[in-house]
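Thread title: Can someone regenerate the structure for this chain?

I was given the following input by a collaborator and told the matching structure tokens would be attached. They weren't. Posting the sequence so someone can regenerate them.
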Amino acid sequence: MYNKFFIAGLFFVFIILSGLWLSRTGRPLNVFILTIHKLVSLGALAFLVISVYRIHLATPLSPAVIIACAVTLLFFIVLIATGGLLSTAKAMPITILKVHQIMPYLLIISTAANLYLVLIRKS
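Best answer:
Regenerated them for you:
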């Protein structure tokens, strides 16, 4: 189980590093870096959803864990939506950029809360 947490952490590191790299390249966005950023993000989402589903099959999750997972999923959806808007050629309002810059921190905190709740449940 700890191996999955390590892999999830690596996904987040790669997402943040590729996002910072992408932001440093300026406009127009580098398609190669953008594709890496999007694929790693999608891979992280798939990995986390599959992991939580398998844990739930093994031992049902408590309502608190399910709520934390739903919040984390909502944060991921907001990040994907704002990232998609920012990757278009049109200029977006600064609020979209700010949400996309703040949301990763909320996502990491939410994911850490999920992991904590799963560990507490297992011990």
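The chain has one domain: 2-122.
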